[in-house]
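job 3f2a | input accepted
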Amino acid sequence: MSNPNKPRRRPVNNKGRNKFGPSFVMLESWLLRSDAYRSLKALPRAVYTELKRRFNGRNNGDISLSLREIVGELRCSKTSASNALKELVEKGLIRQNQPGSFHYKLPHAPTWILTELPFEDEPATKDFLYWKVSKKEDHGPSKRTDGPKIETGSRARVVQSQRNVLYLGQAKRTERGSRS
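job 3f2a | predicted structure (180 res):
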């Protein structure tokens, strides 16, 4: 009889390793360096990672992920989830294999293809490598044309920092308070 308080051990192979192996999501460095991936915001990256997590090595094209699942897993709005999927499709990271539907007896989620991986007998298309950053979508730091406004004279201390101004004002008030 087994002790219910004793933790259960996972089955191991003849070398003492787990039979099932560790669970992880592998994102290749060439994917992470691509312009398409680097231009993604946080939510589309999280959605892509969730799609990649559902890939088991053999099911590219049959990876199901619906808007409701994204909303539940990533705690975002339905509109944000839809926009994230659209962005991934536009940038070529995923393609839809079969749309979701309620026309069957049971509803089913859309199935997705990861373009970085081979699908059926076709090699990987890697459509995202052909995507280029446009000026409109560049989320990098903007160049500032006008420098900071610097005043001289008695107003210089006020312009430097609001925190310093507050501190100087408090110091004057405490001095006045201690004099009375």
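job 3f2a | The radius of gyration is 28 Å.
job 3f2a | closed
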